[in-house]
Amino acid sequence: MSVLNGTGARDERALITPEGVDLRVRVAGPGERLSALMIDAALIIGITIVSLLLCFGAGWVMGFRNGEFLLVIVMIGGFLLRNAWFIAFELTPYAATPGKRATGLRVAARNGGRLSAGAILARNGMRELELFLPLTMVFGGGGEGVDGWLYLAGVIWAGVFALFPLFNRDHLRVGDLVAGTWVVHAPKATLLRDMVDDQPVLAADFAFTLAQLDAYGVKELHVLEDVLRKADRKVMAAVAARIRAKISWTAGEYEMDRAFLQAYYTAVRGRLETRMLLGRRKLDKFDRD
Amino acid sequence: MAELQLKSHRFRNEREASWRRLDSLMTRVERQSVDSLTDEQLLEIPVLYRSAMSSLSVARTISLDQAATTYLENLCLRAYLFVYGVRSTPLERLARFFREDWPRAVQSLWRETLLAALLFTLGAVAAFMLTSQDPDWFYSVMPSGASQGRDPATSTEALRATLYHDDGTSGLSGFAAFLFTNNAQVAILAFALGFAFGLPTALLMIYNGLGVGALMALFVSRGLGLELAGWLMIHGVTEIFAITLAGGAGFRIGRAILAPGDRPRVEAAAEAGRTAALAMAGVVVMLMCAGLLEGFGRQLITLDAARFAIAGATAVIWGLYFYLPRRRAA
Q1: In A, which residues are within 8 Å of B145 by CB distance?
Q2: Residues on chain A touching B192 (C-beta within 8 angstroms)
Q3: This prediction's pTM
Q4: Looking at this predicted complex, what is its ipTM?
Q5: Which residue of A181, B47, B217, B249 has the smallest Cβ count within 10 Å?
Q6: Which domain holds residue B307?
Q7: Confidence of residue B173 (pLDDT cuts 50, 70, 90)
Q8: Is residue B41 part of a domain?
Q9: Closest Cα to residue B246, out of B290, B302, B185, B298?
Q10: Is residue B114 a part of any domain in this protein?
Q11: Are both B96 and B79 inside the same structural domain?
């Protein structure tokens, strides 16, 4: 909820599910998409080379007499690798090609609904326009009898489609636009400890006043949570000193920095959450009533 | 202890087990496949998903435990992508495609298909008239090499021979595979080019018509018109129909982008794209049939009547399959 806690990244977008909950998704940047494509391309080319060698080897063994059968395999195989590779992988429940999987990306429907087979066919059929046409234009368009300016015009025209993802906010390629899909970061997170679990035994020693608890807001609380989670002694000492100074807290003789921070975190969270329930979300320390 | 008073902490402790359960199921689906789950586990997922969604909504209003909210956001997104992802088995999807999706998609493209057919005919008629008047036009219309030794310089006998030559069965499957992959690639290109406002697709349609028209003019001038028609139509009915459908699919996308009507352009394009792509998947199937008919059928069947019979039969079959009125989907 970037809107509420102010930690939203630039590439975060709202995705409203049919249940009406806003799941924040992070759209993939052009660089990540390109590297995913490169991995797929490398795999496809690798498989092509290996199978060509295998076919050649088989043909050599058979003495090139019944080579036609192999020719059919090569042609159909090439067609499938070029067209069906992406479609077949994206039709799986994980909705990602090996390249996307390796870069942690996957395909999703932009409107939050079901990702249909038609959408996957559409987004990959468009590859012909965005990928293969520009490649043919660049490498094959300048043949004999083709005027240099015409060649240039062709390359620019095809380049518009190839570079489409650079010129829109969600980095959609033409296929995504036509299919109503986008490529997002596949979410993968482990559930981290609740820092309240580390409550010091002598919690009762820390009795904060309301004024002391109201010194900070949600933003600072989350920073404190990260500090406690990382548990770096020096950082904790520095943070504890800052907080004590801010809320004018005099440390007891045996008071540990960690215990103090732990107790203060728990107390502030309780205070902020109670106020949240009553409809007041204190964003940060500058957020005054 | 103070922690017991934190509602968010209690909330997390109470729900955590069910989140972890969903997490482990999702991990299995992502790592392995849906088949690795039992029926009970599959039925469990939507329930766990909804409860995780409600947990997320609650956590956002009552909890400042960053770890839990982030985790829930990610978990819900993972589960959401699965629950609303593509999910029927490949076989079911295939059956549905041939029974419902494909003919329906083709049917809904009838206006665009008609336009593509008109452009194709326009190209064919123009090339026919031009080449009939001046055979030199043949060379401007046909790309060099595509005519395979059938041009105005060839003798009538040699032309006749190209229609009925029989090299035996060797080389035929290779020929069929070549025709199929080539035509399918052109068809997919015609579809994709529709995005450029349909203009390149229109040119491609006319261009395809030109070749047929020029060839027809050449053979008619030698009194071989009927024979050529049989030679072309045995696979041409399927192939030209498929290419026309591909053009129609491209036009649908171009139209949605040019004139989206009262919907946002992006939305119109997405809907057009999905319908057109379904039709396109079928076009590839049609071209596979055409490749087989051209590679084998045409080379092995040299009787004109048989060629016309097959041409007629394919026309009737495709026509009925696509355009016979269907009941609305339930």
Answers
A1: none
A2: 125-130, 133
A3: 0.77
A4: 0.78
A5: B47
A6: 91-323
A7: confident
A8: yes
A9: B185
A10: yes
A11: no
